[in-house]
């Protein structure tokens, strides 16, 4: 328990993963702080990552995606929760934030001694004609999916265009496809899952297509064309070679996110990559008494040692907890992130950690990549599936810089072996010899993780790096 | 490629995981060595761990458990394979081994320049009356399971007693149970899976019982009682309190193994724990030119730094490869093992790495354990199962010493995160903050691995260690 004689009021901006982690941790370590969470939306404490599963119906009841109700925080944790409270300004000198309540015309002031900003990220904005048509949807929050679900049940759409071939876009496409809607995914880059190496993304591309989803890569949406009622009815694409128009009944925009920090643009709080709040290892912003965590903050990339933007829920939860403890008087350090992520799309688990080859080369590493395909478990036991792995290695230090994987099973948690190894600064030689578990239904005698690193040692020998 | 002017003939004793890994690696790094593998049994290159799955019928064809046929080694790798060649003696001065071929009355000599001993382990011997009855079976090799399968199909047994409540015993019990045979497991220790903490073994115990398998703990078999034809018909148990006799149609002995090194007992090759050949980090025995790997050799325990006996296939494969390379002129070091293992018994995955609390205390660590139960993935997504984890922590250094897990899914490879963390000498604080993957169908935002280590940090704070 910390003493908080110098600060009585802790304000937290944002009522989702990072914000609630911060408020809860502050309460755990301080019984006498006044803790208030201000959330711009109507809902708190939900898993953004679970939203696509509500669209598809895998999650049947929207209530199931909420981790805890408001009453839990208010009664059990003595944390005041104010929803529909949108922060529009901040006075760092007076230690006050300006809040718009319930979209009213008047704003309210809230004073703080310590502030934790966990306001998340918002969809990247586009200047595309028609982007504001009523049947164009984002997938960032509960309101978004409720709107989409309502539209689907009322309008019974048969065709959809999804802008963006990242994980949210593909999960949305899969969900709509499951509902019987014909989906086309439009991706600007030359591949879906653009952060992944071709060895991995190609496998996903084929499977998504096989499931009946159209994919247009190297394409951008030039305009969304509306009828007289303001409803999007088609999408015009511009590619390198030609222009084409696709009829559609709805559009989903999932082309990436940017830190939700517009309200800080006139303040002295320093912003960094992707407009995220620059934070110290203790998650302090450039302003004393102001902390930040989650999708609105920068993250130290453990591999490069540099500021990065890695807006994962796993980072948000940890950062929130640390920012909350420090704001309440603690002195913890967030070690940073190796960018571990996983997804399950079209029946395939994908996973990634660390740098891809392009990033590694840009950071000056003497990097190479190597790939292999292996069984997920002993082939004698039914259900063994192929896993494809690509790893990125620094030839000079022999350290692992990144790893990517795809397969029907045994991918999401296998990537964590690499995550742990990268965090421990292991060389490929160490990972090749890592003592990994074996039983015929679980793995092969040499785990795929051992195997790909063994292959990399041979590659290094061959290349005489 | 190494030059082998000093050694032309490489003999490998043992034609399973370690031996074939050694021979294959020797060939990879030396094209001109004469490489001969001597195997005492009829079969080579099979997965011992897969044998129980052949009993149950999950593996339908015995051929499926063989990794490679003899012809593969002979033709592709130019390795001579001699089966039914049982090594009975060794002359270290003359560099010769004495081999009994096809159980004939005469023995043959084989000279070597370098020798790799990978003769594995054999079942622990017992002086129990009746142990040699014709329907008493072991489960160490292909002959064993073929005999058992033959007996089952000819005699249609309805009851079985399994001696030993370790993984092989329970896998055998499960397999027999699946075939409709009523099974009783007899375990000397006060629990099944005796290396595991009670938090884990109790869960397994309950599930195995629920599946209809009887378990008698704290019990030993006093005698196996035979009819006049030499067939076991009942088993007499002695417990602390009482004696009881159970009728049975067959007995399986799976009470542990011991290194198969009887033929070395009169030599100057030094034996260590469990009669295993003591090896250096380069896997040399106490004799120049003699290497050892796999279940017949000691293993460096990475945590304690001491010699240990950890007869897993994962160790055997790695040790074999390194011993083979070194015997052919290489200079590699085997880093050792953290004792990672997993099993799937009665629909539950179990896994263990590192020390249990008893071992940790005996090694002088200021150790404590802590347990928790968590969802394997987000509970909103169907199929989330409870995982129970116990970890062993050194309170003085805050380092993780061991971890154990049980659950229906997501256990076998999650243990490898701990294996990697222990190898990297991570503190519980580091693992608490480890960047582990999250997606609703794969994990929870804080992975169970993070959670249990977070809980351990709180415990340390509370105890003021």
Q: Could you give me the name of the CATH homologous superfamily of the largest domain in chain A?
A: FAD/NAD(P)-binding domain
By CATH, the architecture of the largest domain in chain A is named 3-Layer(bba) Sandwich
Number of domains of chain A: 3
- Please count the beta strands of chain A (DSSP E, at least 2 residues each): 25
Question: What percentage of residues of chain A falls in helices of 4 or more residues?
Answer: 25-40%
Describe the structure.
2 copies of one chain form a homodimer. With 465 residues, the first copy, chain A, is an alpha/beta fold. Chain A has 11 helices and 25 strands. The first copy, chain A, folds into 3 domains: 9-48 and 58-122 and 258-327, FAD/NAD(P)-binding domain, CATH 3.50.50.60; 136-255, FAD/NAD(P)-binding domain, CATH 3.50.50; 349-458, FAD/NAD-linked reductase, C-terminal dimerisation domain (Enolase-like, domain 1, 2-Layer Sandwich), CATH 3.30.390.30. In chain A, the strands form 7 sheets. A 5-stranded parallel β-sheet of chain A has the order 3-2-1-7-18. A 5-stranded parallel β-sheet of chain A has the order 9-16-10-11-12. Chain A has a 5-stranded antiparallel β-sheet with strand order 21-22-25-24-23, sandwiched between helices. Chain A is globular, with a radius of gyration of 23 Å.
């Amino acid at each position: 328990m910390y003493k908080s004689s110098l600060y009585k009021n802790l304000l937290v901006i944002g009522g989702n993963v990072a914000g609630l982690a911060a408020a809860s941790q502050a309460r755990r370590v301080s019984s006498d702080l006044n803790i208030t969470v201000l959330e711009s939306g109507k809902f708190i404490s939900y898993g953004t990552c679970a939203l696509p599963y509500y669209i598809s119906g895998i999650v049947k009841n929207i209530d199931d995606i909420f981790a805890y109700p408001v009453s839990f925080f208010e009664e059990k944790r003595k944390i005041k929760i104010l929803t529909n409270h949108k922060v529009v300004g901040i006075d760092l000198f007076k230690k006050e934030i300006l809040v718009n309540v319930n979209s009213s015309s008047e704003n309210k002031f809230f004073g703080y001694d310590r502030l934790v900003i966990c306001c998340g990220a918002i969809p990247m904005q586009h200047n595309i004609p028609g982007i504001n048509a009523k049947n164009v949807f984002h997938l960032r929050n509960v309101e978004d999916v409720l709107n989409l679900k309502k539209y689907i049940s009322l309008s019974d759409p048969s065709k959809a265009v999804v802008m963006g071939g990242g994980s949210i876009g593909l999960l949305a496409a899969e969900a709509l496809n499951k509902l019987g809607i014909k989906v086309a995914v439009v991706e600007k880059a030359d591949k879906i899952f653009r952060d992944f190496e071709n060895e991995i993304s190609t496998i996903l591309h084929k499977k998504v297509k096989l499931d009946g989803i159209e994919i247009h890569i190297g394409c951008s949406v030039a305009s969304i064309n509306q009828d007289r009622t303001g409803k999007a009815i088609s999408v015009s694409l511009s590619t390198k070679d030609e222009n084409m128009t696709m009829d559609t009944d709805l559009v989903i925009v999932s082309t990436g996110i940017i830190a939700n920090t517009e309200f800080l643009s006139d303040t002295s709080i320093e912003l960094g990559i992707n407009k995220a709040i620059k934070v110290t290892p203790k998650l302090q912003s450039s302003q004393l008494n102001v902390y930040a965590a989650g999708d609105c903050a920068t993250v130290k990339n453990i591999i490069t040692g540099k500021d990065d933007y890695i807006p994962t829920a796993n980072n948000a939860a940890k950062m929130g907890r640390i920012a909350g403890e420090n704001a309440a008087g603690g002195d913890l350090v967030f070690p940073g992130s190796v960018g571990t992520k996983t997804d399950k799309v079209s029946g395939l688990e994908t996973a990634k950690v660390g740098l891809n080859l392009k990033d590694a080369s840009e950071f000056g590493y003497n990097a190479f990549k190597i790939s292999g395909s292996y069984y997920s478990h002993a082939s004698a036991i039914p259900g063994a599936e192929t896993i494809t792995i690509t790893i990125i290695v620094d030839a000079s230090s022999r350290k692992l810089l990144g790893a990517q994987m795809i397969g029907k099973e045994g991918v999401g948690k296998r990537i964590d072996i690499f995550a742990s190894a990268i965090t421990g600064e292991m060389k490929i030689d160490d990972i090749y010899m890592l003592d990994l578990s074996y039983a015929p239904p679980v793995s092969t005698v040499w785990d795929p993780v051992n195997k790909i690193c063994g292959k990399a040692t041979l590659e290094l020998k061959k290349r005489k790096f």
